[in-house]
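Listing S7. Sequence submitted for prediction.
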Amino acid sequence: GYTLLSRESLSGIGEEMLVFRLPEGVTGKAAIAEMEGLEPGVTAGVNHAYRAPDPAELSSGREYANGLIGWPQQGCPAQVPVGIIDTDIASDEIGLAGAVITRKQFVEGGGDRTHGTAIAELIAGPGRLTGAQIFHASVVGPVDGKSPAAGVDTLVRALDWMQSNGVGLVNVSLAGPYNKILD
C-alpha cells in the first residue's frame, strides 16, 4: 500500500533516497519498523517539516558573542567553503558584497528571504568571514495550509549537493523534531 513518490541516487553522500506516501491509517512509527524489518541495513524515518525561526525573535546583537570568543573586529579569512541551508537569500545585500555565493533552489516559491539573508550576513557580512565562498541551499517553501517548511528529503538533497561541492562547514538554522535520517 505504500506509494513511491521519488527515488534518487545521492552520489555526494553515497546513499540512495526513496520517498513514500504511507497507506491510510499507517503511522510513521509502524512504517519505520516495517521498512527496516524488510530490508536489513536500511534507515527509515519520517519526512518531518523544519521551519526557520521568526526573524522578529532573533537577537539583534552579535557583539556579545564576538566578545566571548575573541572575534577580531576586522573578521577572519574563510578557510573552507561554507554551506547555508535555510530560506532563500537576497544575495544582492550590501553586507554580502565580499562573498562568492553559489545558490541552488531546492523548492519552488521560497518566499521570505529575511532569515536566510540574516544568517548569510552573520557568516559573511562585515566583520565576519572574509573572502567566503558560500553554497546556499534554499530549502524552505510552501506547505499546503501551513507555514513554510523544509522536508527531510529536501534537506538531504541539499546536504548531498554541498558534499558534492566540497563544502567543509554547513549551517542549518531550522527547528523541528529529532529525525534519524538527518542524524
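Caption to Listing S7: primary sequence and predicted C-alpha cells for the chain studied. The two ends are 27 Å apart (CA to CA). The chain is about 25% helix and 30% strand.
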